[in-house]
Write a structure and sequence with these properties.
heterodimer, A: Four Helix Bundle (Hemerythrin (Met), subunit A), 75% helix, elongated, B: alpha/beta, Rossmann fold, Hypothetical protein af1432, 2 domains, 5-stranded parallel sheet
Chain lengths: 118, 367
Protein backbone atom coordinates (compact mmCIF):
# COMPACT_ATOMS: atom_id res chain seq x y z
CA UNK A 1 0.00 0.00 0.00
CA UNK A 2 1.50 3.30 -0.97
CA UNK A 3 1.43 6.45 1.10
CA UNK A 4 -1.45 7.91 -0.88
CA UNK A 5 -3.72 4.95 -0.16
CA UNK A 6 -2.81 5.02 3.52
CA UNK A 7 -3.65 8.69 3.77
CA UNK A 8 -6.89 8.15 1.90
CA UNK A 9 -7.85 5.37 4.30
CA UNK A 10 -7.06 7.59 7.26
CA UNK A 11 -9.18 10.33 5.73
CA UNK A 12 -12.04 7.82 5.40
CA UNK A 13 -11.90 7.22 9.14
CA UNK A 14 -9.60 4.23 9.36
CA UNK A 15 -7.21 4.30 12.31
CA UNK A 16 -4.24 2.85 10.48
CA UNK A 17 -1.93 2.84 13.45
CA UNK A 18 -4.34 0.90 15.62
CA UNK A 19 -5.16 -1.56 12.84
CA UNK A 20 -1.50 -2.23 12.13
CA UNK A 21 -0.69 -2.57 15.77
CA UNK A 22 -3.38 -5.19 16.14
CA UNK A 23 -1.85 -7.05 13.20
CA UNK A 24 1.63 -7.05 14.65
CA UNK A 25 2.51 -4.36 12.09
CA UNK A 26 2.03 -6.87 9.33
CA UNK A 27 1.08 -4.54 6.46
CA UNK A 28 0.66 -7.40 4.00
CA UNK A 29 -1.94 -8.95 6.26
CA UNK A 30 -3.78 -5.65 6.64
CA UNK A 31 -3.86 -5.32 2.87
CA UNK A 32 -5.18 -8.85 2.52
CA UNK A 33 -7.88 -8.24 5.10
CA UNK A 34 -8.90 -4.95 3.49
CA UNK A 35 -9.22 -6.67 0.13
CA UNK A 36 -11.19 -9.43 1.76
CA UNK A 37 -13.49 -6.75 3.24
CA UNK A 38 -14.66 -6.08 -0.33
CA UNK A 39 -16.50 -9.40 -0.21
CA UNK A 40 -18.11 -8.75 3.15
CA UNK A 41 -21.89 -9.17 2.74
CA UNK A 42 -22.96 -7.77 6.11
CA UNK A 43 -23.90 -4.28 4.96
CA UNK A 44 -25.92 -5.60 2.01
CA UNK A 45 -27.49 -8.09 4.36
CA UNK A 46 -28.34 -5.33 6.83
CA UNK A 47 -29.97 -3.17 4.18
CA UNK A 48 -32.03 -6.03 2.85
CA UNK A 49 -33.13 -7.15 6.30
CA UNK A 50 -34.15 -3.62 7.29
CA UNK A 51 -36.14 -3.27 4.05
CA UNK A 52 -37.88 -6.55 4.84
CA UNK A 53 -38.27 -5.58 8.48
CA UNK A 54 -36.62 -8.80 9.59
CA UNK A 55 -34.89 -7.02 12.43
CA UNK A 56 -33.33 -10.03 14.01
CA UNK A 57 -31.29 -10.73 10.86
CA UNK A 58 -30.54 -7.04 10.64
CA UNK A 59 -29.19 -7.05 14.17
CA UNK A 60 -26.99 -10.05 13.42
CA UNK A 61 -25.50 -8.42 10.29
CA UNK A 62 -24.93 -5.07 11.97
CA UNK A 63 -23.29 -6.76 14.93
CA UNK A 64 -20.94 -8.85 12.82
CA UNK A 65 -20.00 -5.78 10.81
CA UNK A 66 -19.22 -3.95 14.03
CA UNK A 67 -16.74 -6.66 15.02
CA UNK A 68 -15.02 -6.83 11.66
CA UNK A 69 -14.84 -3.08 11.13
CA UNK A 70 -13.65 -2.59 14.69
CA UNK A 71 -10.84 -5.08 14.28
CA UNK A 72 -9.67 -3.33 11.10
CA UNK A 73 -9.62 0.07 12.76
CA UNK A 74 -12.53 1.41 10.65
CA UNK A 75 -13.65 3.74 13.38
CA UNK A 76 -16.06 5.82 11.35
CA UNK A 77 -17.91 2.73 10.11
CA UNK A 78 -17.94 1.29 13.57
CA UNK A 79 -19.30 4.43 15.19
CA UNK A 80 -22.09 4.67 12.60
CA UNK A 81 -22.78 0.97 13.02
CA UNK A 82 -22.97 1.14 16.80
CA UNK A 83 -25.94 3.52 16.43
CA UNK A 84 -27.69 0.96 14.22
CA UNK A 85 -26.83 -1.96 16.52
CA UNK A 86 -28.13 -0.20 19.60
CA UNK A 87 -31.38 0.85 17.88
CA UNK A 88 -31.97 -2.72 16.76
CA UNK A 89 -31.10 -4.04 20.18
CA UNK A 90 -33.59 -1.76 21.90
CA UNK A 91 -36.14 -2.42 19.14
CA UNK A 92 -36.48 1.28 18.50
CA UNK A 93 -36.74 1.51 14.74
CA UNK A 94 -37.36 5.25 14.50
CA UNK A 95 -34.99 6.89 12.02
CA UNK A 96 -33.33 3.54 11.45
CA UNK A 97 -33.24 3.92 7.69
CA UNK A 98 -31.46 7.26 7.98
CA UNK A 99 -28.92 5.65 10.34
CA UNK A 100 -28.31 2.83 7.91
CA UNK A 101 -27.87 5.39 5.11
CA UNK A 102 -25.38 7.21 7.31
CA UNK A 103 -23.51 3.94 7.89
CA UNK A 104 -23.53 3.24 4.19
CA UNK A 105 -21.96 6.60 3.47
CA UNK A 106 -19.06 5.89 5.80
CA UNK A 107 -18.83 2.40 4.38
CA UNK A 108 -18.71 3.67 0.78
CA UNK A 109 -15.96 6.13 1.59
CA UNK A 110 -13.75 3.33 2.86
CA UNK A 111 -14.74 0.97 0.08
CA UNK A 112 -13.84 3.57 -2.57
CA UNK A 113 -10.28 3.63 -1.25
CA UNK A 114 -10.06 -0.15 -0.94
CA UNK A 115 -11.06 -0.44 -4.58
CA UNK A 116 -7.95 1.49 -5.46
CA UNK A 117 -5.61 -0.89 -3.70
CA UNK A 118 -3.60 -2.93 -6.16
CA UNK B 1 1.94 -32.99 28.32
CA UNK B 2 2.89 -30.60 25.58
CA UNK B 3 0.10 -28.21 24.71
CA UNK B 4 1.37 -26.25 21.74
CA UNK B 5 -1.81 -25.68 19.75
CA UNK B 6 -4.43 -22.96 19.88
CA UNK B 7 -7.92 -23.18 18.45
CA UNK B 8 -9.59 -20.06 17.08
CA UNK B 9 -13.33 -20.30 16.44
CA UNK B 10 -14.96 -17.51 14.43
CA UNK B 11 -17.17 -17.58 11.39
CA UNK B 12 -15.45 -14.48 9.97
CA UNK B 13 -12.15 -15.40 8.40
CA UNK B 14 -10.69 -11.93 8.89
CA UNK B 15 -11.31 -12.15 12.63
CA UNK B 16 -9.53 -15.51 12.76
CA UNK B 17 -6.61 -14.15 10.78
CA UNK B 18 -6.14 -11.22 13.11
CA UNK B 19 -6.02 -13.43 16.20
CA UNK B 20 -3.87 -16.00 14.43
CA UNK B 21 -1.37 -13.29 13.59
CA UNK B 22 -0.90 -12.47 17.24
CA UNK B 23 -0.26 -16.04 18.38
CA UNK B 24 1.20 -17.90 15.46
CA UNK B 25 4.81 -17.35 16.53
CA UNK B 26 4.10 -19.20 19.79
CA UNK B 27 1.38 -21.70 18.89
CA UNK B 28 0.32 -23.92 16.09
CA UNK B 29 -2.99 -22.29 15.14
CA UNK B 30 -6.07 -24.38 14.44
CA UNK B 31 -9.08 -22.64 12.94
CA UNK B 32 -12.78 -23.43 12.87
CA UNK B 33 -15.61 -21.42 11.35
CA UNK B 34 -18.41 -23.20 13.23
CA UNK B 35 -19.04 -25.15 16.41
CA UNK B 36 -19.18 -28.54 14.72
CA UNK B 37 -15.74 -28.16 13.17
CA UNK B 38 -14.43 -26.72 16.42
CA UNK B 39 -15.54 -29.78 18.40
CA UNK B 40 -14.14 -32.11 15.77
CA UNK B 41 -10.78 -30.39 15.93
CA UNK B 42 -10.83 -30.52 19.74
CA UNK B 43 -11.66 -34.23 19.68
CA UNK B 44 -8.44 -34.83 17.75
CA UNK B 45 -6.22 -32.24 19.42
CA UNK B 46 -7.60 -32.14 22.91
CA UNK B 47 -4.41 -33.15 24.65
CA UNK B 48 -2.25 -30.65 22.75
CA UNK B 49 -4.52 -27.61 22.89
CA UNK B 50 -3.38 -24.80 25.17
CA UNK B 51 -6.41 -22.52 24.75
CA UNK B 52 -9.56 -21.87 22.74
CA UNK B 53 -10.51 -18.41 21.51
CA UNK B 54 -14.24 -18.52 20.91
CA UNK B 55 -16.23 -15.93 19.00
CA UNK B 56 -19.56 -15.21 20.65
CA UNK B 57 -22.52 -14.48 18.43
CA UNK B 58 -25.48 -12.52 19.58
CA UNK B 59 -27.72 -15.53 19.57
CA UNK B 60 -25.02 -17.29 21.52
CA UNK B 61 -26.13 -20.67 20.24
CA UNK B 62 -22.89 -21.68 18.60
CA UNK B 63 -20.59 -20.62 21.39
CA UNK B 64 -23.01 -22.06 23.87
CA UNK B 65 -22.74 -25.47 22.30
CA UNK B 66 -18.96 -25.44 22.25
CA UNK B 67 -18.80 -24.59 25.96
CA UNK B 68 -21.46 -27.10 26.94
CA UNK B 69 -19.87 -30.02 25.12
CA UNK B 70 -16.40 -29.09 26.33
CA UNK B 71 -17.75 -29.12 29.86
CA UNK B 72 -19.50 -32.45 29.32
CA UNK B 73 -16.31 -34.06 28.05
CA UNK B 74 -14.27 -32.62 30.90
CA UNK B 75 -12.09 -30.59 28.51
CA UNK B 76 -12.96 -27.32 30.22
CA UNK B 77 -11.02 -28.57 33.22
CA UNK B 78 -7.81 -28.53 31.24
CA UNK B 79 -8.24 -25.97 28.47
CA UNK B 80 -9.10 -22.30 29.09
CA UNK B 81 -11.75 -20.89 26.75
CA UNK B 82 -11.61 -17.13 26.15
CA UNK B 83 -14.73 -15.67 24.63
CA UNK B 84 -14.13 -13.01 21.98
CA UNK B 85 -17.11 -10.74 21.42
CA UNK B 86 -18.18 -7.37 20.08
CA UNK B 87 -20.88 -7.38 22.76
CA UNK B 88 -20.40 -4.90 25.54
CA UNK B 89 -23.24 -6.07 27.76
CA UNK B 90 -22.67 -7.51 31.21
CA UNK B 91 -25.41 -10.01 30.45
CA UNK B 92 -23.27 -11.73 27.79
CA UNK B 93 -20.33 -11.79 30.14
CA UNK B 94 -22.48 -13.35 32.84
CA UNK B 95 -23.70 -16.06 30.48
CA UNK B 96 -20.23 -16.92 29.14
CA UNK B 97 -18.52 -17.06 32.52
CA UNK B 98 -21.49 -19.01 33.84
CA UNK B 99 -21.02 -21.60 31.14
CA UNK B 100 -17.39 -22.06 32.08
CA UNK B 101 -15.50 -19.57 29.90
CA UNK B 102 -12.39 -18.51 31.76
CA UNK B 103 -12.15 -14.96 30.42
CA UNK B 104 -13.56 -12.39 27.95
CA UNK B 105 -11.93 -10.42 25.14
CA UNK B 106 -13.87 -7.52 23.63
CA UNK B 107 -13.72 -6.52 19.99
CA UNK B 108 -12.09 -4.36 18.87
CA UNK B 109 -9.26 -5.58 21.05
CA UNK B 110 -5.82 -4.38 21.89
CA UNK B 111 -3.10 -6.74 20.82
CA UNK B 112 -1.11 -6.51 24.04
CA UNK B 113 -4.15 -7.00 26.22
CA UNK B 114 -5.24 -10.04 24.23
CA UNK B 115 -1.82 -11.60 24.35
CA UNK B 116 -1.39 -10.98 28.07
CA UNK B 117 -4.84 -12.17 28.92
CA UNK B 118 -4.46 -15.35 26.91
CA UNK B 119 -0.99 -16.00 28.31
CA UNK B 120 -2.24 -15.51 31.86
CA UNK B 121 -5.04 -17.97 31.38
CA UNK B 122 -2.79 -20.52 29.74
CA UNK B 123 -0.18 -20.38 32.47
CA UNK B 124 -2.87 -20.68 35.13
CA UNK B 125 -4.26 -23.78 33.46
CA UNK B 126 -0.81 -25.19 32.85
CA UNK B 127 -0.07 -24.89 36.51
CA UNK B 128 -3.36 -26.55 37.36
CA UNK B 129 -2.80 -29.35 34.84
CA UNK B 130 0.67 -29.87 36.17
CA UNK B 131 -0.59 -30.16 39.72
CA UNK B 132 -3.23 -32.63 38.66
CA UNK B 133 -0.67 -34.75 36.87
CA UNK B 134 1.51 -34.65 39.96
CA UNK B 135 -1.36 -35.74 42.16
CA UNK B 136 -2.16 -38.53 39.76
CA UNK B 137 1.44 -39.68 39.75
CA UNK B 138 1.49 -39.66 43.53
CA UNK B 139 -1.71 -41.63 43.64
CA UNK B 140 -0.30 -44.22 41.33
CA UNK B 141 2.81 -44.47 43.44
CA UNK B 142 0.74 -44.87 46.58
CA UNK B 143 -1.35 -47.56 44.97
CA UNK B 144 1.78 -49.40 43.92
CA UNK B 145 3.25 -49.18 47.39
CA UNK B 146 0.00 -50.33 48.87
CA UNK B 147 0.07 -53.43 46.65
CA UNK B 148 3.63 -54.14 47.71
CA UNK B 149 2.69 -53.75 51.37
CA UNK B 150 -0.28 -56.02 50.94
CA UNK B 151 1.90 -58.63 49.28
CA UNK B 152 4.39 -58.39 52.11
CA UNK B 153 1.65 -58.74 54.72
CA UNK B 154 0.38 -61.76 52.82
CA UNK B 155 3.90 -63.18 52.78
CA UNK B 156 4.39 -62.58 56.49
CA UNK B 157 1.11 -64.30 57.21
CA UNK B 158 2.05 -67.23 55.02
CA UNK B 159 5.47 -67.68 56.54
CA UNK B 160 4.11 -67.44 60.06
CA UNK B 161 1.50 -70.07 59.20
CA UNK B 162 4.29 -72.24 57.80
CA UNK B 163 6.19 -71.81 61.01
CA UNK B 164 3.13 -72.91 62.93
CA UNK B 165 2.82 -75.96 60.69
CA UNK B 166 6.38 -76.87 61.53
CA UNK B 167 5.65 -76.57 65.24
CA UNK B 168 2.52 -78.69 64.85
CA UNK B 169 4.48 -81.33 62.98
CA UNK B 170 7.02 -81.51 65.78
CA UNK B 171 4.20 -81.83 68.29
CA UNK B 172 2.63 -84.64 66.30
CA UNK B 173 5.90 -86.53 66.12
CA UNK B 174 6.92 -86.26 69.73
CA UNK B 175 3.66 -86.59 71.56
CA UNK B 176 1.23 -89.39 70.79
CA UNK B 177 -1.52 -87.17 72.10
CA UNK B 178 -1.10 -84.85 69.15
CA UNK B 179 -1.08 -87.65 66.65
CA UNK B 180 -3.22 -86.97 63.57
CA UNK B 181 -4.43 -84.03 65.49
CA UNK B 182 -3.56 -81.06 63.33
CA UNK B 183 -5.56 -81.66 60.17
CA UNK B 184 -8.69 -83.01 61.84
CA UNK B 185 -8.86 -80.25 64.39
CA UNK B 186 -8.38 -77.63 61.71
CA UNK B 187 -11.12 -79.09 59.53
CA UNK B 188 -13.66 -79.32 62.35
CA UNK B 189 -12.84 -75.80 63.50
CA UNK B 190 -13.26 -74.50 59.96
CA UNK B 191 -16.69 -76.17 59.63
CA UNK B 192 -18.01 -74.87 62.94
CA UNK B 193 -16.39 -71.46 62.40
CA UNK B 194 -18.21 -71.06 59.10
CA UNK B 195 -21.53 -71.89 60.77
CA UNK B 196 -20.91 -69.23 63.42
CA UNK B 197 -19.99 -66.73 60.70
CA UNK B 198 -23.20 -67.37 58.75
CA UNK B 199 -25.72 -67.82 61.55
CA UNK B 200 -24.39 -65.47 64.22
CA UNK B 201 -23.25 -62.27 62.47
CA UNK B 202 -23.00 -60.56 65.86
CA UNK B 203 -19.53 -62.13 66.23
CA UNK B 204 -18.45 -60.25 63.09
CA UNK B 205 -16.31 -63.11 61.80
CA UNK B 206 -14.82 -62.53 58.36
CA UNK B 207 -13.60 -65.26 56.02
CA UNK B 208 -10.02 -64.62 57.08
CA UNK B 209 -10.99 -64.85 60.76
CA UNK B 210 -12.56 -68.28 60.28
CA UNK B 211 -9.49 -69.38 58.35
CA UNK B 212 -7.14 -68.07 61.04
CA UNK B 213 -9.09 -69.72 63.86
CA UNK B 214 -8.98 -73.03 61.96
CA UNK B 215 -5.24 -72.75 61.32
CA UNK B 216 -4.39 -71.70 64.87
CA UNK B 217 -6.68 -74.23 66.59
CA UNK B 218 -3.89 -76.79 66.26
CA UNK B 219 -1.78 -74.71 68.65
CA UNK B 220 -4.23 -74.77 71.54
CA UNK B 221 -2.22 -77.32 73.55
CA UNK B 222 1.24 -76.09 72.65
CA UNK B 223 1.70 -75.28 76.35
CA UNK B 224 1.87 -79.01 77.03
CA UNK B 225 5.43 -78.89 75.71
CA UNK B 226 6.29 -77.30 79.04
CA UNK B 227 4.44 -79.94 81.10
CA UNK B 228 6.67 -82.72 82.49
CA UNK B 229 6.33 -85.99 80.67
CA UNK B 230 5.59 -87.94 83.87
CA UNK B 231 2.42 -85.94 84.34
CA UNK B 232 1.55 -85.61 80.69
CA UNK B 233 1.87 -89.33 80.06
CA UNK B 234 0.89 -90.62 83.47
CA UNK B 235 -1.08 -93.83 82.89
CA UNK B 236 -3.26 -93.24 85.94
CA UNK B 237 -5.60 -90.63 87.34
CA UNK B 238 -3.82 -87.38 88.17
CA UNK B 239 -3.64 -86.19 91.75
CA UNK B 240 -5.30 -82.91 92.56
CA UNK B 241 -1.94 -81.15 92.47
CA UNK B 242 -0.96 -82.78 89.21
CA UNK B 243 -4.27 -81.76 87.75
CA UNK B 244 -3.73 -78.12 88.70
CA UNK B 245 -0.25 -78.30 87.19
CA UNK B 246 -1.72 -79.78 84.03
CA UNK B 247 -4.17 -76.92 83.77
CA UNK B 248 -1.25 -74.50 83.56
CA UNK B 249 -0.69 -75.63 79.96
CA UNK B 250 -3.08 -72.82 78.96
CA UNK B 251 -0.93 -70.02 80.33
CA UNK B 252 2.26 -71.86 79.39
CA UNK B 253 0.92 -71.93 75.82
CA UNK B 254 0.71 -68.15 75.92
CA UNK B 255 4.32 -67.95 77.05
CA UNK B 256 5.38 -69.97 74.03
CA UNK B 257 3.23 -67.87 71.69
CA UNK B 258 4.82 -64.73 73.13
CA UNK B 259 8.15 -66.02 71.92
CA UNK B 260 6.66 -66.28 68.44
CA UNK B 261 5.07 -62.86 68.53
CA UNK B 262 7.46 -61.36 65.98
CA UNK B 263 6.68 -63.87 63.28
CA UNK B 264 2.90 -63.59 63.46
CA UNK B 265 0.62 -60.88 62.16
CA UNK B 266 -0.99 -58.92 65.04
CA UNK B 267 -4.38 -60.51 64.29
CA UNK B 268 -2.98 -64.02 64.29
CA UNK B 269 -1.04 -63.35 67.46
CA UNK B 270 -4.16 -62.11 69.23
CA UNK B 271 -6.15 -65.19 68.19
CA UNK B 272 -3.31 -67.54 69.13
CA UNK B 273 -3.23 -66.06 72.62
CA UNK B 274 -7.01 -66.31 72.98
CA UNK B 275 -7.07 -69.90 71.84
CA UNK B 276 -4.15 -71.07 74.01
CA UNK B 277 -5.39 -69.31 77.11
CA UNK B 278 -9.14 -69.72 76.98
CA UNK B 279 -9.92 -73.01 75.26
CA UNK B 280 -10.74 -74.58 78.65
CA UNK B 281 -13.08 -71.85 79.80
CA UNK B 282 -16.72 -72.86 80.20
CA UNK B 283 -19.84 -71.01 79.19
CA UNK B 284 -21.16 -71.24 82.78
CA UNK B 285 -17.99 -69.68 84.19
CA UNK B 286 -16.66 -72.86 85.77
CA UNK B 287 -13.74 -73.38 83.40
CA UNK B 288 -10.11 -72.34 83.75
CA UNK B 289 -7.78 -70.47 84.00
CA UNK B 290 -9.89 -67.34 84.59
CA UNK B 291 -13.44 -68.62 84.95
CA UNK B 292 -14.73 -66.35 82.16
CA UNK B 293 -18.45 -66.52 81.54
CA UNK B 294 -20.59 -66.47 78.35
CA UNK B 295 -19.31 -64.15 75.68
CA UNK B 296 -16.51 -62.96 77.93
CA UNK B 297 -14.81 -65.93 76.35
CA UNK B 298 -13.48 -64.86 72.94
CA UNK B 299 -15.38 -66.50 70.08
CA UNK B 300 -12.16 -68.06 68.76
CA UNK B 301 -11.68 -69.90 72.06
CA UNK B 302 -15.37 -70.87 72.23
CA UNK B 303 -15.13 -72.55 68.84
CA UNK B 304 -11.83 -74.28 69.56
CA UNK B 305 -13.01 -75.48 72.96
CA UNK B 306 -15.92 -77.49 71.54
CA UNK B 307 -13.61 -78.86 68.85
CA UNK B 308 -11.08 -79.81 71.52
CA UNK B 309 -13.67 -81.61 73.61
CA UNK B 310 -15.07 -83.49 70.63
CA UNK B 311 -11.65 -84.39 69.31
CA UNK B 312 -10.52 -85.68 72.69
CA UNK B 313 -13.54 -87.99 72.76
CA UNK B 314 -12.92 -89.52 69.34
CA UNK B 315 -9.18 -89.98 70.00
CA UNK B 316 -7.56 -92.71 72.02
CA UNK B 317 -5.84 -91.35 75.08
CA UNK B 318 -3.52 -92.99 77.51
CA UNK B 319 -6.32 -92.92 80.10
CA UNK B 320 -9.28 -93.81 77.88
CA UNK B 321 -10.49 -95.60 74.76
CA UNK B 322 -11.73 -93.66 71.73
CA UNK B 323 -15.45 -93.16 71.36
CA UNK B 324 -17.35 -93.41 68.08
CA UNK B 325 -18.37 -90.17 66.37
CA UNK B 326 -21.97 -90.87 67.25
CA UNK B 327 -21.21 -91.41 70.92
CA UNK B 328 -19.01 -88.32 70.95
CA UNK B 329 -21.70 -86.23 69.29
CA UNK B 330 -24.30 -87.14 71.92
CA UNK B 331 -21.86 -86.77 74.80
CA UNK B 332 -21.11 -83.19 73.71
CA UNK B 333 -24.78 -82.38 73.25
CA UNK B 334 -25.57 -83.97 76.60
CA UNK B 335 -23.17 -81.63 78.34
CA UNK B 336 -20.97 -84.48 79.61
CA UNK B 337 -17.78 -82.88 78.35
CA UNK B 338 -18.11 -79.20 79.03
CA UNK B 339 -20.72 -76.47 78.90
CA UNK B 340 -20.86 -74.49 75.70
CA UNK B 341 -22.94 -71.55 74.57
CA UNK B 342 -26.31 -72.42 73.00
CA UNK B 343 -25.14 -70.72 69.81
CA UNK B 344 -22.03 -72.87 69.61
CA UNK B 345 -24.12 -75.95 70.34
CA UNK B 346 -26.46 -75.03 67.51
CA UNK B 347 -23.53 -74.68 65.13
CA UNK B 348 -22.10 -77.98 66.32
CA UNK B 349 -25.44 -79.68 65.71
CA UNK B 350 -25.64 -78.23 62.21
CA UNK B 351 -22.08 -79.37 61.49
CA UNK B 352 -22.56 -83.02 62.45
CA UNK B 353 -22.84 -84.43 58.96
CA UNK B 354 -19.91 -82.44 57.60
CA UNK B 355 -17.70 -83.34 60.54
CA UNK B 356 -18.43 -87.01 60.16
CA UNK B 357 -17.75 -86.84 56.44
CA UNK B 358 -14.24 -85.42 56.81
CA UNK B 359 -13.28 -88.12 59.19
CA UNK B 360 -14.41 -90.77 56.73
CA UNK B 361 -12.33 -89.13 54.03
CA UNK B 362 -9.33 -88.91 56.27
CA UNK B 363 -9.54 -92.56 57.18
CA UNK B 364 -9.65 -93.49 53.53
CA UNK B 365 -6.49 -91.46 53.00
CA UNK B 366 -4.59 -93.20 55.73
CA UNK B 367 -5.51 -96.68 54.50
Amino acid sequence: MNQEIKEALAAAGVNMEEALNRLMNNEMLLKRLLLKFKDDKNLAGLEQAVAEKSYEDAFHCAHTLKGVAGNLGMEKIMNADVVVVEKLRSENYEGLEADVANLKEAYTQVMDVIMRIE
Amino acid sequence: MNRHKMLIVDDMESNRLILAEIFRSDYQILEASDSKTALQILEENYAETAAVLLDWHLSGEDGNKVLEIMKEKGWLDHIPVLVVTAEQSVETERICIGLGASDMIRKPFDREVVRKRVDNNISLYQHKNHMEEKVQEQNQLLRKQYTVLKLQAEKLKKSSRQMIDVVCNILEHHYPEFDENTQTVREISRIIGKKVQVHYPEYKLKDEDVEAIAELAALRDIGKLLISDHVLFKPAKLTKEENEYMKSHTSKGCEIMKMMKGIQTPEDYKKSMEICRYHHERYDGRGYPEGLKGDEIPISAQIVSVVDAYHALISERIYKRSFSKEEAYYMILGGDCGIFSPKIMECFRMSRKEIETIEVEEREETV
